[in-house]
Amino acid sequence: MLVSTKWLAEYVNTHGLDPKELGEKITRSGIEVDAVIDRSHGMTNVVVGYVKECMKHPEADKLNICQVDVGEETTQIICGAPNVAAGQKVIVARPGAVLPGGIKIKKAKLRGEESNGMICSLQELGIEGRLVPKAYAEGIYVLPETATPGESALPLLGLDDTLLELGLTPNRSDALSMLGVAYEVGAILSEDMKYPEATYTESSEKASDYLSLRIDAIEANPMYVAKVVKNVQIKESPLWLQHRLMAAGVRPHNNVVDITNYVLMEYGQPLHAFDYDRLETKELVIRLANDGEKIVTLDDQERTLKSNHLVITNGKEPVAIAGVMGGANSEVHDGTTTVVIESAYFTGGSVRQTSKDHNLRSDASARFEKGVDPNRVILAAERAASLLAELADGEVLAGSVVVDELDKVPAEVVVSPDFINNRLGMKISLEDMTSILTRLKFDHQAANGYLYIKAPTRRQDIKIPEDIVEEIARMYGYDEIPMTLPVEESKPGGLSSYQARRRQVRAYLEGAGLYQAITYSLTSKEMSQKFALETAPVTELLMPMSEERSTLRQSLIPHLLDAVTYNTARQADTVALYEVGSVFLGETESGLPHEQEHLAAVIAGKWLDHSWQGEKKAVDFFVLKGIVEGLMELLGHSKELTFERTVVDGLHPGRTASIKLAGEEIGLIGQLHPSEQKMRDLKETYVVELNLAKVINKEVEALYYAPVSKFPSITRDIALVVDSEKATGELQAIIQLSGGRLLKGVHLFDLYEGEKMEAGKKSVAFSLTYFDPERTLTDEEVVNAHNKVLKALAEQAGAELRG
Amino acid sequence: MEAQLQQLKEEALQKIEASMNVKELNDVRVAYLGKKGPITDLLKGMGKLPAEERPKMGALVNVVREEVTEVLEARMTLLQDQAIQEQLEKESIDVTLPGRPVKTGNHHPLTRVVEEIEDLFISMGYEIAEGPEVEKDYYNFEALNLPKGHPARDMQDSFYISEDILLRTHTSPVQARTMEAKEGKPIKIICPGKVYRRDNDDATHSHQFTQIEGLVIGENIRMSDLKGTLSVFAKKMFGEDREIRLRPSFFPFTEPSVEMDISCFKCGGSGCNVCKKTGWIEILGAGMVHPNVLEMAGYDSKKLSGFAFGMGPERIAMLKYGVEDIRHFYTNDVRFLSQFHRTEV
């Protein structure tokens, strides 16, 4: 909503406040002023000129040499506008003028002819092209004959004005009108309202003799007022009206259309003007449209209607889409002599649906959607009639044609001053409260410790005691509210154990060298199930903005890979990222997908790089596996952790494992498939994804200290020769199971496959630690235990001791 | 014999003097003072002397022996010191060479902001509540006083999954769910999480972003409690000398509703590019919980009241760290992420 401060001052005394200061007061008490716009843009030396002579430039077809009376002198100005002509009053920017956009006007010579200034279009004075009347859209603007040469053109054009741009929240639709803003300013400044006049002489003929009215959809249209005005003269509106419309962001057309728009801006009540003769029938019938019924609207678009769209008809066919846009068939035109002015109450839901279906939002629909003031329907119709009489020489027929079943009773709110003070934590006196209500012009009475308030119908947002709390508080001033802290039973706050452990997981991963990434949850359908740990139906958007973001992810890996690709393409030689986030699996009984919190990590490039000491290592499977093992140790699950070779689409078939805790699958780890790696132009890249929720929620034994023994342990190393395919994990498991209670540790310390080995064999060396916390072990005990291990290895894995 | 002794002494002292390192000196020690050395031999040979000469001679040998030992020890100390000096010289390093890096990652800047806020409110007795990102229309809108067809729904264009399921447009449904679960009991929670809105991604819009909200419900919770709480937050988060101001606003789930500005932390209020010359920076929205919201969740709005507030960690991070484009938070450029490594006090 754009509010001209000059226009506003017609309805309320603004105390001559500087617009910035006024804007600040409005912002602080309830309605945010987004911008304060100086329409003059600091222009000077812009005056009225009279074109005395106008002749073609001898050297240039498109230029005219004009002799212009600018008050103190007559001077020559070259003008390139196609519509310039002798006898016009025009806007002249004299030498020294600075126009919006920093254009400086200087004396100049154009093709040998002197030019002392510029004859201006409205656009050159900073008015948006879409607001300039069509007649002047392509050339200079022509002022009325009454303008005096030499006087400043800015006041004539309303450019000596400042606009307040209001950022209105949906509850304050009352401020979608000049009167509504005036009420607000009146409340802030303790001023009374001056209402616009609506007086005219009625014709002896009656409107009801010209027009009949029927409403077949009273729920969507509980009130309709039609006024008939005959003998109107269609012409340009007076300049003051035109520039007010332009200030409000509306393009002037002709006096009739402009009057309906002016009253819309003034009262917030949308109006529509029909050409009475073009209606053909002498009746208006408001009904729901028939499915498939068509209408060509004012913007020359043919629109197909549905059965929930409300239309105004002439009894046969639609002549307007109610509250949204008029029809071309009944449009007011230059030859119109009799008009029907519609002022109606269309319900918000109906207009909202229709304007949404047709993707058509207008100043009218925006106001109907939010609810107009029921008590202004008639007032606005009368105001329009009086303006038509005044500005279009119209003859207003007596009375109106009305159907009215609209509830216009103000909402009653009963609230106690104590309630207000308790909610605010303040001690505002009853006197101050009633004074605020008076300023707001809310009907009120104080009795029996309560305030009985009748909220004016223009303020449809006032319904409950809390609404009054807000009105009192915002007018009293939020700065006056003291600062306290809630008084309540004190209890400790904190993280849940899940949340605390998740933080530990993050800290661990960052300590291990990974950066935390956050990627998008929405992905393409194609990528949504890639690397998913579980098979589940996908969750898709009804109306995605793009195919790329149409489906919720089931794995974090694809977007992390995108991040690796992004970084690698920007010369990052190492990328190590992790993400903790939800994946979305299928539908559950509630209809919502099952959201599972996962952890994923990707690493690519160098892992160690300390070149001058010769320490360098590229990432590999075991770097990432080590991080997972460390994480499980942190969470107390290392004893239950196993890795089993598996095959996953998109990963290297020989370098992928499923990760299990006590036999239950909780994740996967592997190298990105070389063909995918090539496609993304990456180095070797490794990925892991874990069902973090499952890992964190898995029960873990309480931490309990084991006494530190004073007895020594004994270590025996063995080197085994086994088949190359034999998994070392299996050997380790055999050792652990067969080693008995004395075996306390198994540690793989060497692995050899190569020339010195028989083909198809490898050597694996383990270091075994034997230990008894109660005493020093004897050699014999160790030998016995160790022999059992060797025997089991030979029997179960065909392992031989390497000679 | 005496002369022989003197000659031995001279010889030994010469050799000690000539020893250039510990090993040579040790050889001298063994050669002259060892069990097989000439001085020991002399002592052994004393048996051949007449009995009356023996004590004198013995004493003389001991004197020589002590003299030689003393000189040798002194020389030994000297040579050992020299040896250490040499070793130290050999071992000296270029201390300006780079050390072995300890490679660690760090929090995403949004997590950094969220955790800072969480910890601050935890210290005031709040718990952290979380909820699903795919929500029912009921929890996302209806339970928050936004019935179907409410004009305020336009403020948040949503991604729907079906007619009544959508990606949550704010973290407020967590409040609605928590209220339902608490069955009328007091609440003090902070709800951080991801939210989604139908926006084209550009420098100031992101279809996915983060929110963090707070909710307190109890007996006689007042708007002054909200103001006091927000002031504590502003000072902790943006500096002790921050001032706050509340401006009236509108949210369907609170009444009254406010927006909170803080005095600019860059210029202190005199006006700069961060606060767009106003001296104030808009930080969050807040208000007193709307009675409809309380009633819908089964709270008696006559007995209990509450306040709620909500803010965007992206905005806070952008203000705090001067990040100019919201997309940086979701590109995961390591050159961006790694800048949030250091700690702040």
TrEMBL record, chain A:
Its main location: cytoplasm. It catalyses: tRNA(Phe) + L-phenylalanine + ATP = L-phenylalanyl-tRNA(Phe) + AMP + diphosphate + H(+). GO terms for cellular component: phenylalanine-tRNA ligase complex. Transmembrane segments: none annotated. Residues 40-154 form the TRNA-binding domain. Residues 709-802 form the FDX-ACB domain. GO terms for biological process: phenylalanyl-tRNA aminoacylation. It is an enzyme of class 6 (ligase). Mg(2+) binds at D461, D467, E470, E471. Keywords: Aminoacyl-tRNA synthetase, ATP-binding, Cytoplasm, Ligase, Magnesium, Metal-binding, Nucleotide-binding, Protein biosynthesis, RNA-binding, tRNA-binding. Pfam families: B3_4, B5, FDX-ACB, tRNA_bind, tRNA_synthFbeta. Residues 408-483 form the B5 domain. It is found in: Cytoplasm. Belongs to the phenylalanyl-tRNA synthetase beta subunit family. Type 1 subfamily. Tetramer of two alpha and two beta subunits. This is Phenylalanine--tRNA ligase beta subunit. It comes from Psychrobacillus soli. The gene is pheT.
Automatic annotation (TrEMBL), chain B:
GO terms for molecular function: ATP binding; catalytic activity, acting on a protein; magnesium ion binding; phenylalanine-tRNA ligase activity; transferase activity; tRNA binding. GO terms for cellular component: cytoplasm. InterPro entries: aa-tRNA-synth_II, aa-tRNA-synth_II/BPL/LPL, Phe-tRNA-synth_IIc_asu, Phe-tRNA_ligase_II_N, Phe_tRNA_ligase_alpha1_bac, Phenylalanyl-tRNA_Synthase, tRNA-bd_arm. Residues 111-319 form the Aminoacyl-transfer RNA synthetases class-II family profile domain. It is found in: Cytoplasm. Mg(2+) binds at E255. The keyword Ligase applies. SUPFAM superfamilies: Class II aaRS and biotin synthetases (SSF55681), tRNA-binding arm (SSF46589). One of its GO terms (biological process) is phenylalanyl-tRNA aminoacylation. Its cofactor is Mg(2+). Binds 2 magnesium ions per tetramer. The keyword Cytoplasm applies. Keywords: Aminoacyl-tRNA synthetase, ATP-binding, Cytoplasm, Ligase, Magnesium, Metal-binding, Nucleotide-binding, Protein biosynthesis. Tetramer of two alpha and two beta subunits. Belongs to the class-II aminoacyl-tRNA synthetase family. Phe-tRNA synthetase alpha subunit type 1 subfamily. This is Phenylalanine--tRNA ligase alpha subunit. It comes from Psychrobacillus soli.
